[in-house]
Design goal:
Length: 117
């Protein structure tokens, strides 16, 4: 169980890293269809941002499946925020909620750590 708690803590750290220092202004503005960057489709930047988060979650847990789930969830949640359906506060709560789900998947053995790494 200590390994699951460590993975959860590392996912939270990775989330903070991915949403703040690893997301520059270019990406933060351009990943939203309302504030596009000339010549770069918004979904390229949102996709790249989601892949960064998925990679960080995958590394934190040692599980490629969690990385893939995180990528999809992060893209979907940020899309909801970009469309104005949810606030930044709800966005962050949903992202942390995903980490709780991923840790639960590890704790129950639905997915295993070090599946690929």
């Amino acid at each position: 169980m200590a390994e699951v708690f460590l993975a959860f803590c590392l996912m939270i750290f990775g989330h903070a890293l991915g949403d703040y220092p690893l997301q520059n202004d270019f990406m933060a503005r351009g990943k939203n269809w309302r504030t596009p960057v000339a010549g770069v489709p918004w979904y390229y930047l949102l996709g790249a941002h989601a892949v960064i988060h998925g990679g960080l979650a995958g590394i934190a847990t040692g599980c490629v499946w969690i990385g893939l789930l995180e990528t999809g969830a992060h893209f979907a949640i940020d899309s909801l925020k970009n469309k104005g359906f949810i606030s930044i506060h709800t966005d962050q709560i949903l992202h942390i909620g995903c980490k709780v789900i991923w840790a639960s998947l590890l704790a129950t053995g639905v997915v295993r750590s070090a599946t690929v790494f």
